[in-house]
Every structure is written in structure tokens, then in C-alpha cells.
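Table S2 (continued). Query chain:
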Amino acid sequence: MKGFIQNVFKHKYSGLLLCLLFSIIYLSVFYNEVLFHPNKYLFASEGDGIKNYYNYAWHIKHDKSFSRLQNMSYPFGEDLLMEDSLPLYSSLLKVISYFSPSVNNYPIGILNFLLLFSLVIGAIFLYLILLQFSVPKLLSAISGAAICFFSSQVLLFNPPGHYGLSFICFFPIGWYLIIKYFEDKNRIRWSLLIILNIIFWTFTHVYLGFILLIFTLLTHIFKAIFEFKNYIKKPKEFIYPIIQVIIPTILILSLILMSDHHPNRVNLPFKLDYISNFNSTFTPVISPLKPLYEVFFDLSIKDELSWNNIGNYIGFSSNLAIIVFAILALYYFLKRNSQKILTFFPNKIYLFVLPAIVLLLYSMAIPLRYLPLSFIDAFPLLRQFSSFGRFAWAFYYVIAVFSIIFLYKILYNKFWGKVLLYLFVLVYFIEGSAYHIKESKEICRVKNAFNYNYLPENDKILTFINKNKFQAILPLPYFFIYGLPFEKASSLNSIYDAMVASYYSGLPIMSTYYSRPSVSESLDLLKQLMPAPYKVNLPLIRSTGKDIMVVINNEDFNLLNENEKEILVKCRPYVRNKKYSIYDLSINKLIADSLGNQDRLYDKVSKYYFQYRGMMVRDTSQFLVYNSFDNLKSQVIYKGSGAAQGIKTDFDLLLKTSTEKIDTSQNYIISFWYYNHLMDQTFNNVVIAETDMNNSTLQKISYSPFENIIIDGWWYLSEFKFKLRSNKSTLRIFFHGEDYFEKWFAIDEFLIRPADMDVYRLTIENGRKTVYLNNRKCSY
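Corresponding output:
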């Protein structure tokens, strides 16, 4: 038997076939339903998951351009390369669909299959990598599969739904090509493959390409450090590393810059929401061994450490290998036998371990988190790659391979050591099974809504749309998501329903769910949906003459805000069933000219009030506080001759007053206009603080000034309802924020009024006077 096994493993491809067999069996155990019916399911039907599926499938089926998405943010659309929805894959399938239109029926299935099969591809390349470091075939085959199937990238399937990031094979392929470059004399061939690989993964998801780019650069830097004399003697050695990094960088940036035609994109600040830490790297998110870790560590997931929900846990076996290595290294160091330590680094694997450690530190935002923001702002690219935790994937793969090599070195010479070594490899499979048990259940919960055969019966009404009658879909409640200063998404139904209706009809959506949208374009679109006098005209919408299709899930009527209710009043029914109501909105009713200006709220109510203890009051139990700030100077002004301006990081006190004789059963509304150019004045909160006679806090409320979506130019109307707790307290209202983007803020027309007070404003529309009562049109 022993001789038979030895003969089998003499075959050139025996290890490769064995790794393939292990991988397919392991994959089939957990995902057999999806493997045999990949087109049947959506791995995630919410958040980024539904967005990624929709953008990818819509582009294949409907877009006329290869470089542009026209499915959302109508009429502006988006550039394909700026959207993290697998641009390379959707474009390739779009080409194929010209010759084989049946591809349009299977985009989801193709993607699902590729995501799962990337586990198998990754295992094969890890097997090849282990072979490069002289690990026996059988151990390499089993270990390659074990490491790949234990990758926490699997947890991105559901609920995050980051499918561009879920291709587990990306790093093993990139690492293998670098190893072959160092080993093979044909530097041109492997350099070309490295460049093409970086470009390929960049246009799968930009983070994947960037991780490979940085890892490639770091390996060359460390090689140049350790082999400095060789590089000095052979300056040509610098050429290939330079072109491997510079060529893909220039090509990628050039394509993005040439294709991007949208102004004022969201330029996100440098934040630390998605950094890795000790827990996310060395302790599990889910694992059969988690109770063992909980004896020593606090594994509770905290909101401020969002990356802990995914993590990059290296596994019990890798942790053990690191601990044993550290002990042995210290022992040999004290014995002054450093050469013994180097035997644990065959074929100069330290050239990859050190870059992986650097990327681990970067994933923890070290040292960036300790540098002043002014330094970070000088390198805008760093801000855009601030989901740091993802960079620790390089550390996971490299340290897992190193752990197998190290354990092989110290255990493989004895029979009991071999048994122990394979048990440690088995632990990777056992811990990884927790990922796959969870994900295999989650990804089969929702049928593929982008295939008519799996669409629920009530949802089929979304496919019966006369495309020639309408120009776009308006979902109610409408949504504006991803870093916009006026983000709104009150209903998951609205997003899902609009995307399904859009996919089948080919109609674009008048809402935005893009990764880096244009602020000004999204703002222009949002203003279309606000009541007069804030509307603006989009000529493209008007010129078509076609109506707008309004889609609302019947469960969501109670979620509509006042603006959305106004829109619904203008609609006429189109078709309805138990789940959906679809309406026809005339374009003429949607668009109205803004010929009037917003009058001061104060001007319409002040005649009913008189001065009382520094406040405007109607009687002794109701008060109105108003400040026009006309006596102040500001860089920007909304009404009158002045506005209040402050520094976001300061505690800018706007109001301090006694609550004596104020009716504590009454609700009050604080309102003002807040200036926000693009999103420069964001990251600033209003704080309402009420303290008693001993200066103890009775309540402290903090809210964003962008919670209500009424916008005039770059000014946002902020309104917030609150109630006082005592009439023997002190009320303070102040601003305090973070030093992101612009340091300053400005407000105008500050007003506090009883919630039940009638607030009138007079506007001129089409030459006629119109009165609004509490933002609703009424007779005049």
C-alpha cells in the first residue's frame, strides 16, 4: 500500500489533482445546492449585495455603452469604472451577449458560480506556492485547500454582499506570480503576467488590485534591502520592479480619469471605522474553538470596530505556530545561533512575511492613525482606501503558508509529528466549517429576482411595464445612499422593488445608490422631488415628454414623508395588486419653475408675538426664539445681511435661556438653514442640552442638521422636534463637530417655535401668489 501511494505521488500532476479533488468535495459538502443551481439564488438581497447584482446585471442587459451605467441617478448615470460592481465581468459578458443573447438569462448564476469556484482556484495556487517552498505534495494539496477554505473573505457573501471583494483566489494568484518572477530567468514574461494580473483584479474591485500592487512593491523593496549589493552591481534589476508597479498604476489612473465625466464626487474623509485590530486578526468571529479564546480574551464586537464582523482571523493553528516560532526564535537568539532561525525561512520566504506584516500594520491604520489630518489630506488617495481591514488579507495568506512550512520543519521527521501536523491542518478545515455552515444557509434564503422563473407571483407585476410610456422609475420612499450629505433610505423594500422593476423594464431609477456619486448631480435630482419653491429643472427629463412611473410597496405608505405624500397626490393609479401600487406621474406635475424665493418663517408669525424676557412669546407658556444674525458677518448668507459662522470643533453656543414657565407638555421645533457646499460642512452636530439648577444634565440630544431634506441652493433646512423636561432648568443649544473637510460652518434664520404653531410662507409661482401652511399648499 505504501509503495502504491509513493508511485501515485510520483506522477507530475498527482498533487494538483488531489488538491482539486479535496476542494471540490469540501465545496460540494456545503454548497451543493448552489453549485447545481447557481442561477436560482441571490446571495444577499439587501445593501451592497442587491446593488452589486443589479448594477452588474443591468449593465449586461440594457446599457448601450461599455463604459457607462445608466441604470440609476437618472438622467445622470455613472461611469462604470467608478462603481464597485464588477466592471470587468459585466463588460466581458456584455460582449458575449451580442453573440449569445441567452447569457442575459444567467448573469447571476455565472457570478455565483465564479465566486464559489474561486475557492477551488485559490486552493490550487496555494498548493503551487507551498510546493515552491519544498513542502511535500500531499501536505501541500491538503494545506492549500485548508487555507483557502478558511479565508474570512467567505463572510463577505452575506450579509455584506461585497461580491467584487469575495474572489478568494486573488491573492494566491498574485503571490504565486511574484514567486515565479524571483525564481525564473524569464523576467519579461512574469513581469507582464504580474501587470496583467494587477489590472485584472483592479477592475474586479479596486481594493484587490491595490492590495496586490502594494504587496508587489513591498516585496521588491525588501528584496532590494536584503540583496543591496546585487542590486548595486546590476542596476537593471530595478527596471522590472518599477514597471510592475508603475505601468498598471498609470494605466488604471488614466482609464479612470479619461472615463470620469461627473463633477463634485463624494470625497470621503479619513476615518477609522473599518480598521483591523488584535481581535479581528488573532481571534475568531465564529469558530468551534471560540469558547477557548473567550477564556482569555474579550471577543464582544463593538460598533466602532465594524471590521470585527468580518475580520481576517488567521486560525488556531497559525496562532500556535507563531507562538512556538517566537519561543524557539528567542531561544536560539539567546544561544547566539541565529542561523538556526533562518532554517525556518526556506527559499527566502521572509521576503513575503515582512511585506505581509507591513500590510497588517497598515490594516490597523498604523502609523496613519497617529498622524495629523493635515498630513493625510495631502494624500487624497489614502482617504479613499480607508477600509483598512481588507489589507490584512495578505497577512492571513502569507502567515498561514509560513505556519505550515514552520510546522513541517519541526514536526515532519517523526511519525507522531506527521500525525500532529495533519491534525493542525485539519483544524483549519474544522474552523472554516463554521463559516461555510453559516454562509451556505444565508445565501440560499432568497430566490434570484432577476430571473423571471424565480420571481414571486406578486412581484411579477413589476415586469408588466410599458417602457414606451415612461422614461424613468421613481421609487417611494426614494433613496439617496453612500456618503451623500443628504442620505436617505427609509425602506429596504423601496430599493429592492425599484431595482427589480428597472431590470425587467430597462427603465432607469430616479434615485442614487452608487459608491462615489456626484454630490451636485444627486442634489439636482433630489430637488426635483421637493415641494416648491425649491425645485430646479432638469431639461433632459422635461424634453422626453414621457411620464414617470412611481413604485411603492404597500407596506411602505406609512413611511412616506411630506414631500413624498405631495408627489403621490399628483399621481394617477396605473396598476395594483396585494403587494404593490404603481402610479403614473405626469412630467408636467413633477416639474415646476421656481419663480419665488423662500420667505422668512419669522416674518409670517412675528406679528402674533411680543417680547418677554428676551424671547418672543404668544403667551407666558409658549415662546418663539428667533435670530436673523443680520448683525453678524459670514462668508455666506442665506437671507438678510448676515449669518452666524463658527468652527466645527469648538462648542459654539447659539442659545442659552431659562425654561421658567414654559409648558413642558408642549413639543417645540428648532429650525434653521445650514450651509453645506458639496459636503464640506458635514460632520457637525446640533446639541440640545437641558441642565437643572445644580448644572446636572437632565437631557442631552445630539442630531445631524441634515435629517430633513429641504434644500435651497447649498442651504439645508434643518428641523428637529424636542420636548423640555422641566420649567426650572436651563436650555442650551450649541454646535460641535469633527475637523473633516472645511473647519467652519454657517447657519441662518434660527427659529424655535411650538410644534403646533401654524407657520406660513408666501411664494410666487408662475406669477401667482401661493400660501404654504407648514410646508403644504393651501388656499389663498
